[in-house]
Structure formats: structure tokens, C-alpha cells
Design a protein that fits this description.
The complex is a heterodimer of chains A (about 525) and B (about 325). Chain A has 22 helices and no strands. Chain A has helices at about 5-30, 30-35, 40-75, 80-95, 95-105, 115-120, 130-155, 160-165, 170-200, 205-210, 220-225, 230-255, 280-310, 310-315, 320-355, 365-375, 380-390, 400-440, 445-470, 475-480, 490-495, 500-530. In chain A, helix 5 (about 95-105) packs across helix 22 (about 500-530) and helix 12 runs antiparallel to helix 17 (about 380-390). Chain A is globular, with a radius of gyration of 24 Å. Chain A starts with a helix and ends with a helix. Chain B is of the alpha/beta class and about 325 residues long. Classes of the chains: A mainly alpha (about 525), B alpha/beta (about 325). The interface of A and B includes residues 227 and 228 of A.
Chain lengths: ~525, ~325
Amino acid sequence: MRTLPGLAALAFIAVLIGGAFAGLLWEAAADWSGAAAALDLYLLRVARFTLWQAALSTVLSVAPAIFVARALSRHPAFFGRGLILGMFAVPLGLPAIVAAMGILALYGRAGFFAPLFAWLAGGDWPGIYGLSGILVAHVFFNLPLATRLLLEALDAIPRDHWRLSAQLGMRPAAAFRLVEWPAMRAALPGTAALVFMLCVTSFTIVLMLGGGPAATTLEVAIYQALRFDFDPARAVTLTMVQVALTAVAVAAMSRVGASLTGEANLAVSARRHGRASPTETAVNALLIVLTVLFVAGPMAATVAAGLEAELGRLAGEASVRSATAMSLALAGLAALVSAALSLALVSARSRLAAARRGRQPGLIERAADSGPLFVLVVPPIVIGAGWFILLRHTGAVFAAAPGMVVAVNALMAMPFAIRSIRPAHDAAATRHDRLAASLGICGWNRLRLIDWPVLKRPLATALAFAAALSLGDLGVIALFGSENVKTLPYLLLERMGAYRTRDAAGIALFLGLLCLALMAAANRLGRETR
Amino acid sequence: MHITIPMFSAALLVLAASAQAQETLTVYTYESFTAEWGPGPIVEKAFEAECGCDLKFVAVADGAALLNRLRLEGEGSTADIVLGLDNNLAWEAGQTGLFAPHGMSLDAVEVPGWSDDTFVPFDYGYFAVVYDSEAVKNPPASMKELVEGDPSVKIAIQDPRTSTPGLGLLLWVKAIYGDGAAGAWARLKERVLTVTPGWSEAYGLLTSGEAPMVLSYTTSPAYHRIAEGEERYRAAAFAEGHYIQVEVAALTKKGAENPHANRFMAFILSPQFQDAIPETNWMFPAAATSAPLNPVFDEMIRPEEPLEIPSEEVAKNRKAWIDEWLSVMSR
């Protein structure tokens, strides 16, 4: 049974997600009145704020991205273009907690721009806690993402279209309307849906930049109901609403054909088509420069604020060291589990697909194919909340922290790990399966001699990516963290809570560099495979 | 190498054995108690010298979070003692069945009107709005003035779900406005800069100049007077009166079996513990200190008849009142 590991991986996903829902339902079934009573004005306002901030964030990210992507596409070759596109990929790998620190260092009440803003406002600069902070952070993350996705759509416009438009003597406005806009319009719903989804499930940003009950999303309210209020009934209701919301968002996304994992493979190729007029060039340059400044600002501020911290003292602190060790250990384990599960699933799927010889795919094959995508519908905080409620009856909530962090982070990284493993694996399988079978190579020998050389690079990519993702995670650890289990993001949040902002900035710099190094490794390994 | 490895492991064994021989006492408390400048380090040193045991503090954000943490862990909790609940939460905490009676005489207690067989007070104080006199020229002289005052002069408050001062303000407003509390909050909300999970964060906003007013205690200015020689931060006296907070400690059922825990409960009312309170926790001591308090404390507001809602009534209505608060504050 070569599909056994795959079944085990499916069972793992089922137990983790199913257990969470069992915990929630059990709690709700014990006393429906509590869960029903939580359907109050507060819930309504939180849900409304969740949707409102996500809608605003989407518009503010995607609308400018249309013009930035077009500007970048109009100038396919200029000095630093590759660098800019590379920089636009950075926010994707930056932990939200680090970005939030950078944004506070820049626009906060005591931030770099505070005196300027205070002067402009003609008085005090109230800072950006609340909706404005959340929006700035979401745009920081999603404007570059949307730009990359739309640019990919523009790059896919066939050369013939450009040639034809040049022959017809189209002006830029006409070319935009007839050539560029249709291409972008096709990619727009998917892009917008992805951004919307990311903002609806945003936890860290809202936790750090939200300002009390008036700026709370469902995810943060779930966390508060459990850790602040000890109100499992309310947590259950909030979770159900959250899952319903994400399910609707994902259903809408699949209708418009969005890629859930938000991948953009940009060919940094130069393709010339029609020269832009000087005015247009100036406008485009301004657009690009402004976007670059907006995206680079928080990153630069993170570095600047981090360097101001007493890094030497921080590095010597026992709490920082143990949090680093804890983070690396948990992230490493999560990455291993994630890669192993992904490989098992990918392998089971391709085996089943080969065995059925063109008939309809069976249940297990379909589960192995799309099961991991369910992960994206169920945010980590929801799985965490379910298990938190389930485990509290055992009194071992805080003892279970390391296991929960590893399991949930491994699960969260699976869609990404599968994406990097599957192409190489499936290509190798079609090439080698028959030969290996006829030579009688199987089991350990097959893995060692045939699969390993092909798969080691994609596996390393998956490991690095999964490790980076779980290093920066705050969702699960925020629920389960305690003085015994502290990761770097948890320590950062704690220092920030105690208004030891300098320390927090130093930790943020360290954490950001760690994650970016891993992401860079993942990218490099991934590129060399192709 | 042959010699060093066995020697090293022998040394490790000895270390492990001595660590086991030393018994531990686990005390759950709130963050500002264990901070470097809080009473925690002094209390720890004094008690460890007396008992020869290892006193371990486990700190959470604030007093109300302490109760949540304990409920979550239930019987499996490692806490021997919980220090930092208050009069408002005592009845509700008692209902969890996790605590054991202290079995001591409370004759030494100097807190007005305190008697309870589970909770031993370790200090008390009165909630007050503390303001920066350089930023606030006309401080509010009553709760009414606070609620109805200029919304551009902000106040930082604490979340009543995690913080005992946050809950204190909620009850203070309730005690004054009764059924009109929601309306008062709707107006006060305009003046709220931010809602922090614990007292430390909110007070940090005042001292860093980010908030001109904060909810704290009538005794908070004593810190600035005594430790910093600074008269800038003052407590506003409210015409309606001030709400009292009595901070208490209690034995858990697990702790009742630990002799060090019983000893610690008695230690709380001794001068060694009480001496640390006024000038580290900046509250009034719950029992006699070895020397009179710094005269600055005499200048602090000390209401004759403080406001208080009975603990049982608080327990019955806490959820409803917090929901009411959430509903107004999320608007």
C-alpha cells in the first residue's frame, strides 16, 4: 500500500480540523443559550467592521495596483526594475508583526513622520491606531501582491496584440482601453478576491494596530473571547460566523478562478511595445517612485528602529535566546511535518491518478488533491480556538502549546509546500514509474536512488518556506503561549505591550531578517529547480 | 576526555539533586507586581530567606486575566497562591471552587470593613483619574465632568475583561450612573484614546506623553513625588466619590497542601511584606508597616465613604455589564 502515508496525512488534516470543530460544537451543544446570547450587537459590529476594513483594504490595494502594474508594464526595461519587483515580493515573506512594527515606527504617535503629520494637522498627531493603521498595513502587504498579479496578466498579453495596436496607431488611452484593460479585467476579480480573503482573516495586524473594541475583527474577537473573557460560548459563535464568512469568500474566489495561494511568477523579461510619451513617462515614474517609497518605508523603518535597540544586550538576554531557540525548534519541526505530509499526499495522489487509468477520480484522490486547500478556509485562530476549548477540560491547555503550534503551522504551510513539491514529483513519476516497476526498484531503494535526487530541491524549498511561515506566526501562539512557551513573535508582542518599544524593534529586526533569509533560500532553491 | 565526561555528569547529577531538594512555591500574579520596580523582587527575596524554598512568580497581564487563566487551567493549575484578584472579583473567584479557606485570623487587617475566610487583602486603594498637569489645564472635578468634558483631551483606560482597574472604572460608572451607564459610556467613549489590556500599558501612555489622562489610583502621584520629586502628575478628586479596590490573595486547593503556601499567606500580613507595598505597588498597606508611611501619602485623596458595589452583585452582573460596555465601545 504505497498510499498509506497519504491516507495518514489526510487523517492528520481531518483530525486537526475535525477536532477543532468537535470542540466548538461540543461546547455549543452543552449550552446553546450562551452561544445564542452571543449573537448580539457586539457580534454584529465586529462582523461589520471585519467586512468593512477588508473591503476598504481591497479597494485601496487593488485600485492603485492597476496603475502601478500598467506603469511597470509600459516600461519593461529600466534600471532597478528587477530590484523593484523583487522588493514587491518581500512583504509576502515578512511576518505581519514585523511589518506592523515598521508601520508604527514610521506613522505612529512617536513615529518618524509624527512631527510632520502633527504640523500638517495643526496640532497633535493622534497616531494610526484603529482603522487607519489597519488599512495602511493591509495596503503595505497587498498593493505589491496585487501589482505583481496584475503585471503577470499584462505580461501574458500576446505580442501580436501589441504589434497590431502599434500598426493601428493606438494612443496610450486607446491601448489601455482595448488591450491592457481587458487583460487586467480578467485577472482583477481573482486578485481582489485574494486580497479580500487575506484581509478578512487578518489577525496580527488588527491585534497590534487595532484600537480597542471599536476596531476589532472576528479573529481578534475570538482570541479576546478566549484569553480575555474566558467566554467559550461567545468564541464558538464568533468562530462559526468567521468560518461562514471565509467559506463564502472562498466560494466566490473559486467562481472567479482566483489562485488561493497568491503566486506570481514574473518573468523579468524585457518586451518593448510602443514608446511612452515624456508626460506619461513622468507620471509613471512618479507612480512607481511613490509606491516604492510606500513599500520600502516600513522596511527601512524596521531596520532603523531595530538598529537603535541595544542589540548586544538583547542578544545576551536569556529570554530572547530561549525564545529564539523555541521559535527555531517549533518552526523546524513544523516545516518537517509539513514537508513530510505534503510529500505523502502528493505521492498518494499521483499513484491513485495513475492507477485509475482515466476513470473518474475516487474520493481519496480528490481529497488528496483539494483537501489541503480547505486549510485556507479555516484560519489558524479557528483551529486553535477549537482545540483550546477542547483541551481546557483536561487542564492541559498551556502544556499542549508546542504540539499545537507545530501541528497548526505545519497544516497552514501545506498548500505552499505542495505547490513546490508536486510539479517535480509528478513529472518524475510519469518518467520513472514504469521503468522502476520493470526493474523491480521499490521501497527505500526507489526513494534513495530515484526520487530523492529529483525531490531534494523542491523539498528544501518547501521546508524553508514552511519554516519562514511558522517563524512569523502569531495566531496560535497568541492563544496558547505562556511563560513556559514563548516564541519570538510572542516575546515581541509582550515587550510591546509593556511599552518596551526599543526591545520590540530589535526583536522585530532579528525576526524579519531570519524570515527573509529563509524566503530567499526558498526562492533560490525553487528557481534552480526550474 | 575520559575523566571530564564522568566528572561533568556527576556534577550535573549533584545539581539536579539539589534543585529537587529545594521545594517551590508557585504564585500567580499580575505583571506590574513582578516588574523590576514592583514589590515582587523584594517579597521574593524576603520570603525565600525565611522559608528556604524557591518562590516562583507566574505573571499575567492584569488581575482579571488572572482569574481567566485560573479557570482555564482548572484543577490542573500549578498555582499554590493567587495574588492580585480584588474585591470585585473575589465572590466570583470563590464560586470556582478552586480556592481553600485561609484559616487565619484577620485581626491585623486594616482595610475598612474587610472580612472573608478565603481572601486575604494585601493592599487597597481608590481608583482615580490621574492627569498630566502640564497637558490638562482644567482637570475634571467629577465623573460628570469627565464624561461630558472636551473630547479632544484624551484618557487611556483598561479593558474590563482583563484588568481590575478597567473593571473598576466600569463599576465606578455603574455605581454613579446606574441604568444610565451605557449613555455615559457613549459620551466618554469620545475621550478614550485607547483601551489597553493591563494597567502597565495604560500608565505607560501617560508617562510617555501619549495620553494626558489615565485611569489609575489616588496614590499614583505619590510615586512621582517620592521616586522622582515630580509634581506634574496629579489625581483628580471626583465629587461623586471614588471607588475602592482591595487587592487580595488566596490559597488554591493545591496550595493548601503546601506548607510554604500557608506560611506565605501569613507572611502577606507581616511588616516585611507590607513595608514593600506603599513605595513599590503604590497602594495603601493592608496591615501595619514597621515604620510610618512617607508623609506624601497623607496628601493623597482618601475618601471617607468610598463607592463600592457588593462583590456578589458584581459577579451576577459582570457579564451583562461588560456586554453593555462592549456594545457601546464597539460602536
